[in-house]
Design brief:
By secondary structure, the chain is α/β, with parallel strands linked by helices. It is built from 8 helices and 7 strands. Helix 1 runs parallel beside helix 7 and helix 5 runs parallel beside helix 8.
Length: about 260
């Protein structure tokens, strides 16, 4: 990285959870700035996801390890039988809704790692070349020592852990600025200090399928609106021009520097 350069790790999450999101992420890769795609092995649209992008070696694919199911309209079960991961599931065999529920009843770390292995194996069998691992809903915060255990597991599996790269967010993203979310993102990018940054999004379309995702605290209409804008953060011509004109380097995880 040269002096005064901006490098940007661009990541799209939840690939495989539905066909609409799959198409939005594929657009964000093929016509946008995404270079890293995190794949959900538990997603019902994994086969569709593989058909769109699995063979594209320009993408750095990651395991989006999933241990919680936050939606009320769509729920996920572990790949392993519930009897092998009893601390991860509710009475109906589904993942618990959010990691905070683990605080009252801590899950078994070995069961988490075993389920991660099953998810990794499924992604590899589907044709994805998996380079890194991250976590859906950042579930490791709720279990003491789990972050270190996951890092050790990643090293054993020959994967990069995302955590050493996760401390560098564009600082201006949290500030209020004029315009829509794309304008604010471009403003943050143009005013960032030299260095390496990370932007994570969940690209989607504001369509009937995306509006079907939701829960009591996060209705489907808001999910669809947010994911529409997150797609535009990766594909809008204003962003493409800012990256191009600003000499921004787009990074895969396996090209980035650890910053933790």
């Amino acid at each position: 990285m040269t002096e005064n350069a901006i490098s940007l790790i661009t990541r799209a999450d939840d690939y495989g959870n539905c066909e609409s999101h799959n198409r939005a992420i594929a657009e964000s890769v093929k016509h946008g700035i995404v270079r890293n795609v995190s794949v959900m092995a538990t997603g019902p649209a994994l086969e569709h996801a593989a058909s769109l992008l699995a063979g594209d070696r320009s993408i750095c694919f990651g395991l989006h390890a999933t241990m919680n199911a936050e939606w009320e309209t769509f729920r996920w079960k572990p790949l392993l039988p519930a009897g092998e991961v009893p601390t991860l599931v509710d009475e109906n065999g589904y993942f618990k809704q959010h990691p905070g529920l683990w605080l009252a009843a801590q899950p078994d770390v070995g069961q988490i790692l075993n389920e991660m292995k099953a998810q990794l194996d499924k992604l590899r069998a589907a044709g994805f070349l998996i380079t890194y691992a991250d976590s859906h809903m950042v579930f490791e915060w709720a279990v003491p020592g789990l972050d270190a255990a996951i890092d050790e597991w990643c090293a054993k599996e020959g994967l990069l852990s995302y955590r050493p790269f996760s401390g560098s967010r564009l600082p201006s993203l949290e500030t209020e600025a004029a315009g829509d979310p794309v304008d604010r993102f471009v403003h943050a990018l143009q005013h960032a200090e030299p260095g390496q940054y990370l932007i994570v999004g969940h690209p989607g379309y504001d369509d009937e399928e995306t509006r079907g995702w939701g829960n009591a605290d996060y209705p489907g209409e808001k999910v669809a609106q947010d994911r529409h804008w997150e797609r535009l953060l990766f594909t809008d011509e204003r962003v493409l021009a800012a990256v191009r004109n600003g000499g921004v380097k787009l990074l895969r995880y396996d090209e980035a520097r650890a910053v933790r």
